[in-house]
Every structure is written in C-alpha cells, then in structure tokens.
Amino acid sequence: MASADREERFNRLVREHGDAVHRYLRRRYRGGDGTDVEDLLADVMMVVWRRLDDVPSDAEAPWLFGVARRRLSNARTRQTRRDRIMAPMRPKSASPPAEDVAIADLSLREALARIPEKEREALTLTAWEGLGPEELAVALGVSVNAAAIRLSKAKTKLLGFLEEDVEESSPPIATPMQP
Amino acid sequence: MERHQEDDELVSRVASLDPAAGVAPLSDGAMTRVIRKAMAPPPKSWSWGRFRLATAGALVGSSALVIAGIIGIDAAAPSLPVLALGAPPASAKATMIPYLNYQFSADASLPTTGGSATAFQLDSSQDPVAAATSLAKGFNVSGAVTSSDGYAQVGSSDGANVTASSTNGLMSWSYSAAPSDFTGVACTTSPVGGNTGPTGNTGPSCDTGSTGTTGSTGTTGSTGDTGSTGNTGTTGPTGTSGPTGTTGTAGPTGITGPTGITGPTGITGPTGNTGPVAGLPTSAQAAQDAVSLLGSIGITSDLGTPQVSSYNTEVDVSVPMVIDGVTTDQSYSVVYGANDVLESASGILATPNPAAAYPTIAPSDVVNILTQDHGFVYYGGLAPMAGVSSLMSGGPDSSARTSSLTVSGSAESGSGGITPTTIGSGVTTTTEGPPVVDVDINSATMQLGTYALKDGSTWLLPTWAVSGPESGTTITMPESYSADVLAVDSQYVQVAPGPIVF
Asked: Which residues of chain A from 13 to 42 reach within 8 Å of chain B, CB to CB?
C-alpha cells in the first residue's frame, strides 16, 4: 500500500473507531485519568499503524478491540507491579476496578466481578461494545464457537451468582468489594 | 425461547451499567494527538542500571517518598543492599472522592518485635521462544512458533496454544486448550410435570434432560339425556268396531350429551436448577491433577496447598508457590472442564535465588504504616495522604473537588468523621468526612510478595499479610480487612524518584 494510502486509511480508522476504542479502554483501565487512557489509546493505534496491512477490512472495529485488549492487559500488568510498590497503601479489600465506579446495581456489579476475567470480557464486549458473535471472536482472538461458549459461560455464571445473591442478603452500599 | 429472552435481558442489564456512558467523545484535538503519537517513530529504548548497592545517604534526598519512613532508623549504617523500588504512581486524581476513612489499631496479641527474613530475586534465564517451546512439549501442543518482542507462542490462537512472555526479567506462561476440547454450556434439567421436558442443551458432555411427567387425563363427559317416549295413538270411533289404532311412533332418541371437556394439561413444573456438566473432577481430584500437571511440565518450585473453586462448567485450581515454607503471592492456575479436560493453565517460570536476610519490622508496627500512609479509600483507587493534602491545597483542578474531606489523624476513631480542619492561612472550617471504619489488626503472617525494582528486576520480598475485623456505622455484617505490607525495615528500602521502567 502506498504511503499516502496508508496514512489515509489510518486516519480514517482512528477517526471512525478511535472513540469506541477510547471508551473500551476507559471502561476497563483502573485508576487511570483521561490522560492515561489517551496514552493507552495512542499505544493501541501505534500497533494499528505498524500492522495496518493486517487489519481486516470487514472487521476493523473488533480487530482494534483485540489489540486494545492485549495492550490493556500489558498495562494492567505494569500497573499491578506498580501497585505492588505501594502495597502498604493498598488494602486488598477496598479498591474497586474501573468497571465498578459508575455501577449502581451492586448485586450485578458483584456478580460481574466474580466471573472469570476472560468470560467477563466476552460479556462486556457484547453488552458495552455491542459486538455480535463473529466480531466477538475476532476481538477475543478465538473461534466463533469458542467465543460463544465463553459468552454462554459468562451468562450462566452471572445468573447463578445473581440467584445466590437473591437468596442471601445483599451487602451494604459502603462495604468495600472483595478482590 | 424463554432462555433467549432471559439472556437478552441480562445483556441489557449489563449494558445499562456501562461505566463509560457519560464519557464525552474524543475531541478533534485528542484524535490528532493520538494520530501524531501513533505515527511517530518509536523512541530509542533505554534501561536503568542493574541493581546497585545504594548507600544509606541515598535515602536523604527522597525521604518524602520512602516507604514506611515512620519506622525508626537504626543509627548504624546498613550493610545490606538497599532495595531501590520504583517511584509510586501519581498522586490522587482530582476527581477522586473518598468514601471510607479507615482507622487502624494493633491488637495486643500482635508481636512487638521484628526479626529477619530472606529476600529472593526471581530469575528467568530462558528466552520466551525456548520457554514456550519447552512448555509446549509438556502440554503436548504442536504448531508454528511465533514471537515478537518478549513474547512467544506455540500453536494457533484459535486452537491449543502455549505462550510465554517476559516482563521485568520474569517469565509468565499460559496454556489454552483448543476450543473444540471445551465442554458445552451447562446442562439444564427438564421441567417437572406437564408436557415432555425439553431435551437438555446440546454439549459434548451434557446429560440428556429427563422426560417430564405426563399431564393428568381429562374428566369423562356426562351421559346424554334419555330420549322422550313416543306419543300415544288416538282412540277409534264407537260403533263398528274400527280398525285398531296404529301404534304410536316411538319418540326420537334422546340427543347424545356433549363429550366431556378434556381436563386441563398439567401445569409445567418449574425449571430445574442448572446442573453441572458431566464429568467435572472433584475438588480433591482436580487439586491432585493440578499438582501432578505442574510437575510434569517442569515446574520445580515448592508448592503450597491448592485452593479449589468449583463452578457448574469448570473447576479452577490455584496452587501457591512456596519458598522454604513461606507462601508467596505467586501462584499457578489450572482449570479443568467436563470430563476432566484441562482447559487452561498459567503461571511463572522463574527460579527464586536467595539474596540476603533483611531485618523486618514488628507486626505491631504495620499499623503505624497503614495509619501514616493512608486512611482514605477512593473510587478509582487509593491515594496516599500526600495526595489528599494536595487535593485540599487548591489549584487548577480545584473546581472538580468535593468538600467532603477529613484530614488524616484528626478524626477520633469511630467518631463519624466530623472534623475541624485548618486550611491554608489559619482559616478553620468544619467538613463532613466519609464514614469511619475501625480496623483491629489482629493477625499477621509472614509471606513473600512480588516487587519490581527500579533496575528492572523482580523480587520476592518479605511482607506481612495482615488482617482484622472491621467495625463502624457502615458495617452491617462481618467484614474483614486485609492488606500486604512490605516487612523489610525501611532503612533498606528506597523509593527512588523518576519513572518506573518495565
């Protein structure tokens, strides 16, 4: 692809999907302010720029979510290690992840937090990013069948936890969440 | 159909919790910045020098950043290497809102004297390609080897694969089974009573749903009414004997009564609870298999007691790494699905090399660190008190702040957080703080926690894993607080200013 064409496509990709990827990162990056997330977005787009020829034209957005997912994972690893340095200041029982900050439905929030991460990601990509089965597979980097299984597992577990929650009494609002 | 609807409702419910719902779209300026950054040539890489023997004097310049600086410093200069940790993250964000104010106290049962404990450097000598290739043999995974900076993978992403990646000199690995090896979704038992229950969901190992009970037979209709008798024939005229009157015609047969209405179909019973997929291993079996698996792929670390969590579709095993009987915060994860199929596994590949035995603080002193270094818990993270101070001192972001603040150390334990506060040049105001949570630290266990040093190496350092019950107005059910606190005496710990390089 000619240099001008590459730049044009990249510009279009960022303009069309940058906002969605930015929201994806905002939803999941713990403790970062807007600037941190913008840095992460630039990090994602840097990968996109370098691998522009690999971006499938019929699945651009999910492919970008897939890159964002991996970069986010790296960033979280870095943050975990950084948090370790500040471990004396960090109680295990009281630092809700970013997904929890604006969540009012406490029982659902807690149930979501109990689902294994890879399955929660399948569910939130569906609910928040609006991905369909095929797009979900691209974003997760797995087959459509595997993506469907993850999503199904997530729903089953979420329902199970919610039912458990109904049977037991809900914790008070101010109770810190268990990790 | 019902399940489908339930699924849609669930997804909608999760969607309504979108934490980015109120986030404004990226501005054109932000888009431009992102594009410019992304297209810029990559910066030249650089790294900090290897771990060095810092002197106690290095502590002076960074005293504000020293972890646990409240611990008394021994008059004698330390002869052990100072552990140069990376700098702490940025101070509290302006939009953070404190929602709990923790007040700590040490239970009388906590030891008041310190001791010493060995620090270990985690050494991963293999490169990612060699590590992934070696592990792939253990997991019987074949396929192409792909690699990029600090990362390698054997097998395809949509099939069975093994990955290895190196960060801070520490190798992490993972195994994922091929999706076709995964079990189907959880089986659902069929409804009780009524029509035949639905067949259990298809899945490689799902049990077929049991047949529902047949509905009760309808009530038999009542017998029709008897037909009426025929009319009597008329009498002949007198005189000549007339012919005998004809016999009256028989009355019409009574109309058959309507067929009884069939009884209602039995009411369908409630759907049975979702059952576990077939062939999940028991907790004991999964724990045993996990330990055996780790040995078979070359994990030579000492292992602690496996922790098992069972779900309807999988059994998760977490096996802690143990060194000389001390539990570390590193663990190996192994997940089994239906029919005892290994679905995934992960962990680290590193040798813990003993460095030196460091003096450790007393468990009772942990409370001082907790009190000194924080007390507020924030949505979005926890900020040190220095961050709170900066929040209250005014500045460009002051408009976004809350007035709901309590200054550390001023609130009486359990007082509810109404605190007179002096701000700036002697102006005293009263602010209503967040609810107070009292924590009685009554347990401390020596463990080894993972810390990244500023030179890019990763260590397991002695930590106190402390815990204790919480109490206060917001606590309506038993809650336990827990935290890991670096146990190395502060004179051997330095948080150097500058960026952390990973």
From this structure: 14-15, 18-19, 22-23, 26-27, 30-31, 33, 38-39, 41-42
- pLDDT interval class at A105 (50, 70, 90): low
pLDDT band at residue A20, thresholds of 50, 70 and 90?
very high
Q: Would you say the C-alpha torsion B133, B139, B142, B144 has a positive or negative sign?
A: negative
Beta strands in B350-456 (DSSP E): 351-360, 376-378, 418-423, 427-432, 436-441, 443-452
Minimum distance, in Å, between the CA of residue A154 and any CA atom of chain B? 10
pLDDT value of residue B387: 27
* Among A93, A94, A92, A97, residue whose Cα is nearest residue A117: A97
Q: In B42-114, which residue ranges form alpha helices assigned H by DSSP?
A: 58-61
Q: Tell whether the model's pLDDT for residue B285 goes beyond 90.
A: yes
DSSP letter for B149, please. T
Backbone angles phi, psi at B188, to 5 degrees: -115, 130
Mapped onto helix, strand or coil, the DSSP state of residue B194 is coil
Q: Which two tokens stand for residue A17?
A: 């999907």
In whole angstroms, how far apart are CA B424 and each of A14, A39, B248, B384, B434? Answer: 46, 35, 124, 20, 22
Q: What is the pLDDT of residue B66?
A: 32
Pairing mode, if any, of strands B418-423 and B493-495? unpaired
Q: What 3-state class would DSSP assign to A94?
A: coil
- In a 3-state reduction of DSSP, which class is residue B236? coil
The residue count of chain B comes to 502
Q: What is the pLDDT of residue B344?
A: 85
Tokens 């952390």 found at: B500
Tell the residue number behind the tokens 């997912």, with chain if given: A69
Contact yes or no for B382 and A81 at CB 8 A: no
Which of B 298-317 lie inside 8 A of A, CB atoms?
311-314, 316
> What distance in Å separates the CA atoms of residue B210 and residue B188, rounded to the nearest whole number?
10
User: Are the beta carbons of B201 and A155 closer than 8 angstroms?
Assistant: no
Most confident residue range from B33-42, B338-347, B488-497: B338-347
Please tell me which residue, B96 or A48, carries the higher pLDDT value: A48
Comparing CB atoms, the residue among A84, A105, A157 nearest residue B451 is: A84
* Size (chain A), residues: 179
Summarize pLDDT for B167-220 with one digit per residue, the tens.
777 888 888 887 666 544 443 343 343 333 333 333 333 343 344 444 444 455
* Per-residue confidence (pLDDT) for residue A33, from 0 to 100: 46
pLDDT (tens digit, 9 = 90+) per residue, B56-76? Answer: 222 222 332 333 332 333 333
Within A29-143, residue ranges assigned H as helices are: 34-50, 60-85, 98-101, 106-114, 117-127, 133-140
Decide: B198 and B190 in contact? Cβ < 8 Å: yes
CB B492 within 8 A of CB B117: no
At B354, give phi and psi (nearest 5°): -65, 135
CA distances from B124 to A73, B52, B173, B346 (A): 21, 19, 12, 15
CB contact under 8 A, B452 and A85: yes
So what's the ipTM on this one?
A: 0.72
Whether B436 and B418 have beta carbons less than 8 Å apart is answered as no
Dihedral sign for Cα atoms in the order A31, A36, A38, A41: negative
Map residue A20 onto helix, strand or coil: helix
- Mean per-residue pLDDT of chain B: 65
Question: Strands B170-176 and B161-167, how do they pair?
Answer: antiparallel
